[in-house]
Write a structure and sequence with these properties.
Layout: H1 2-10, H2 16-23, H3 30-55, E1 59-61, H4 62-73, E2 81-88, E3 92-100, H5 117-121, E4 133-135
Antiparallel strand pairs: 1-4, 2-3
Helix pairs in contact: 1-3
Length: 137
């Protein structure tokens, strides 16, 4: 894990959009920024992967995603998630991303301190979404 993080953070060009769009104005170093990203992503994957696995080949609802987050982190967490969907020819509406609302990067604290998705998720603003459900290939 540490070597993966060093690899990612030693060359910011791996994720230039993320760094230049979100990280450069955060007030923290690339190592801290990507350290937070890796930590929170690992936690989100652990919580949400089962929802996507159950929906594979079928329809995924926003309610299922929000319900899982609520069950894991409390009733306010689900309001901080939205589905991103697209109309795909012959496939219909495909759910291809989940966005989670988090507070500003500086409010996450130093990279050395333990970071909990549940703790930071409820500090982000609630999200609205147009996509209520989509097919998961």
């Amino acid at each position: 894990m540490q070597s993966q993080l060093q690899s990612i953070t030693s060359d910011v060009t791996v994720a230039p959009h993320e760094w230049y769009r979100h990280g450069t104005c955060s007030g923290i170093s690339p190592a801290e920024y990507f350290g937070h990203a890796v930590t929170l992503t690992e936690q989100a994957v652990k919580v949400l992967d089962p929802v996507f696995e159950r929906a594979a080949g079928r329809r995924l609802s926003l309610g299922a995603v929000r319900g899982r987050l609520n069950a894991e982190f409390g009733s306010a967490a689900g309001k901080r998630a939205k589905l991103i969907c697209a109309q795909v020819d012959r496939e219909g509406i495909i759910a291809y991303q989940v966005h989670l609302s988090l507070p500003p990067v500086l409010d996450l604290g130093p990279a050395e301190s333990p970071l909990s998705l549940g703790d930071v998720l409820v500090k982000g603003p609630p999200l609205s979404t147009k996509c209520r459900a989509g097919h998961v290939p």
